[in-house]
Amino acid sequence: MRESVRKLGLIGAGLWAITEDRINELVKELVDKGDINKEEGKKVVQEMLEERKRQKLDLEKKISEKIQESISKIDIFTKKDMNELESRIQKLEEEIQRIKNKEKMFFK
Q1: 54 with 79: CB under 8 angstroms?
Q2: Are residues 41 and 88 in the same domain?
Q3: Using alpha carbons only, what angle is made at residue 78 by residues 76 and 80, rounded to the nearest 5 degrees?
Q4: 48-102 pLDDT per residue, tens
């Protein structure tokens, strides 16, 4: 039994890529062989699904960090940059309008 659980642990290294159905199949095979009982099988499935979720989130985080790192290195124009420029343009337009309004009052 310990050998079977060890094998499941090795499978866990790339668990994020395995579907839930495949996990259930693997555990069912172990139960059918008598390597583990049904209760242990349920526990193993739950643990593998939790580990799969953790690995998926970890992978997504690492990918996101690498993307952000790459973007910062290539000095690309970001959505944040666009929003800042739009804000500055809005303020400039408001200032221009304010100056025009003052001129109108002054030259009347």
Answers
A1: no
A2: no
A3: 145
A4: 888 878 888 888 898 888 888 877 788 778 889 999 999 999 999 999 999 998 8
